[in-house]
Specification:
This protein has 490 residues and is an alpha/beta fold. The protein has helices at residues 4-15, 57-67, 72-83, 86-89, 92-100, 102-105, 119-127, 149-170, 174-191, 197-217, 227-231, 241-254, 265-287, 293-304, 308-311, 313-322, 327-331, 335-355, 362-380, 392-396, 400-429; strands at 27-31, 53-56, 112-113, 116-117, 129-131, 458-462, 465-470, 482-488. The strands form three sheets. A four-stranded mixed β-sheet has the order 1-8-7-6. Strands 2-5 form a two-stranded parallel ribbon. Mean pLDDT is 84; it is low at 1-21 and 110-117.
Length: 490
């Protein structure tokens, strides 16, 4: 298992919905009209309050992980079934193949054999628990070396949940499918309660698995409307704040020597040497995870050049003064103390330049985050006033722009699902006709603004086909111009 910082880049495409409807253009849906359920919240996409219980869900999830670890071929087969177009998936031969596959079917069929409770029972029980504490050793070891095997296991198990929901949908067991999807969405929220960015990103990925099943749901004859169930979901479904807050303090947690304390001059020198040594050791550790050798040579060369403090002393002192330090106090700092103080404050400066945007809606934050990342790239290249002595920020700060966009895409998927369900309600009240515009839908309010771009959704009705387009981020290099072609099933 790689260290969590380094698997972030690999997980980002998966967390944002790789191999999902968002990667296909156009997405074609033949929806079925549906009326509102009575009561309106008869169906909910998270376990209901009355069914929830006190307890730590992480323990039950871990039991499920340990109870069932199939061969790789089983997971490959599950992935293949999930990728099938729903019309192919719902064929009798596919359903029979799933039910006849003992290694797969036993993962989610609620049966008892030899006193073994299969995985879906544990997942359902875990989803109903009110807390989820993964007890990560964040304050016990270097944060950047924490391993997260349970996170990948949660992603794996979410596929079984999505497969079960899809199977129930194909068999027109709609209430059961909704309950199973609720287990999946609860898993998304639970895995994200681990205080790392990876936990949050995997939470988004798990929710995306369930979102794709809901696109199938909207096309089934007799399937109830889930407009109000979707509208009742928490927003955001997966909270990014725990991972972001931990990430902001990860450097001090991993390198406590950076914290300002009273030290003698000799202690400052020893601390500076230890800091450089610890960073070099971490760099060597991470270099085994695939970083280019020439980049690491440059990093280690910079670490060896602590003598540059003396050369840059005036600019380093000026920076500390701009951060609020007293000019007379700064003038009295030794090289070792100046080295440590500058390293911490420059990291925090570059970090906060990115992180300050993250609680804004993504369309408002995007330009600021991208400008901050361009500034960080210059610092990494050793250009300008932002050049670090030890490249903490250049090496350790995450791709905040991509993280923020991943969360925004999750919110957009939920909005698209609400629009699709709104169309189903509209069609039921208008003899199967689709709306001429988004404003034409009067039975329920529809989202109008794309959560990623901040621009209105584009919509047109051509003959009997509605075309919903998620506007492209023109001029930014992003290519998320996605189109849904929606008809009403005959």
């Amino acid at each position: 298992m790689k260290h969590f910082l380094l698997i972030a880049a690999a997980l980002l495409p998966l967390a944002s919905g790789q191999a999902s409807a968002e990667d296909e253009s156009p997405v074609r849906l033949a929806i079925t009209p549906a009326v509102e359920p009575l009561p309106a919240l008869k169906y909910q996409l998270l376990p209901k309050f009355i069914d929830r219980r006190p307890g730590n869900a992480a323990l039950r999830y871990t039991k499920a992980m340990l109870d069932y670890r199939p061969e790789a071929k089983v997971d490959a087969q599950v992935d293949a079934w999930l990728k099938l177009p729903f019309a192919e998936f719902a064929k009798r031969e596919t359903i029979d193949a799933i039910r006849n596959s003992h290694d797969t079917y036993k993962t989610f069929e609620a049966v008892h054999q030899s006193n073994v409770t299969y995985i879906i029972d544990d997942l359902r029980a875990a989803a109903r628990l009110e807390s989820c504490d993964w007890e990560l050793p964040i304050r016990e070891q270097m944060v950047f070396a924490i391993k997260l095997p349970e996170v990948q296991e949660m992603r794996r198990m979410s596929r079984y949940v999505a497969l079960r929901a899809r199977l129930e949908l194909a068999e027109k067991k709609y209430a059961e499918a909704v309950e199973t999807l609720g287990v999946g969405y609860a898993m998304a929220r639970h895995v994200s309660q681990g205080a790392t960015l990876i936990n949050g990103l995997v939470g988004v990925a798990v929710a995306a698995q369930m979102d794709r099943v809901l696109l199938d749901f909207a096309q089934m004859p007799g399937a109830p409307s889930l407009y109000w169930a979707l509208t009742f979901q928490p927003r955001p479904l997966v909270d990014p704040r725990p991972g972001l807050e931990m990430e902001m303090t990860a450097l001090l947690l991993s390198f406590p020597a950076l914290q300002t304390t009273e030290r003698s001059e000799e202690e400052w020198k020893i601390t500076a040497q230890r800091l450089a040594k610890e960073f070099t050791q971490m760099s060597a550790l991470l270099s085994n995870e695939g970083q280019p050798a020439e980049w690491w040579s440059k990093v280690l060369g910079q670490v060896a050049l602590m003598t540059q403090v003396a050369v840059r002393r005036d600019s380093l002192q000026a920076f500390l003064v701009r951060c609020g330090a007293d000019q007379k106090d700064v003038a009295g700092l030794s090289d070792a103390q100046l080295f440590i103080e500058f390293s911490r404050l420059k990291y925090e400066d570059l970090r906060d330049d990115m992180f300050r945007w993250t609680m804004l809606p993504y369309p408002e934050a995007r330009r600021g985050i991208e400008a901050a990342e361009q500034r960080l790239a210059k610092a990494k290249a050793g250009n300008g006033d932002d050049q670090e002595i030890i490249p903490f920020a250049a090496l350790l700060l995450p791709a905040v722009a991509q993280v923020s966009k991943t969360y925004a895409r999750g919110e957009r998927r939920l909005d698209v699902l609400r629009i699709v369900e709104g169309f189903r309600l509209h069609a039921a009240k208008n003899d199967g006709r689709l709306p001429t515009s988004l404003d034409d839908v009067q039975v329920v309010p529809l989202p109008k603004i794309d959560a990623v771009t901040g621009r209105p959704f584009e919509y047109s009705l051509k003959n009997d086909t509605a075309v919903l387009t998620l506007p492209e981020e023109r001029g930014t290099g992003h290519k998320d111009a996605l189109t849904y072609e929606i008809t009403v099933a005959k």
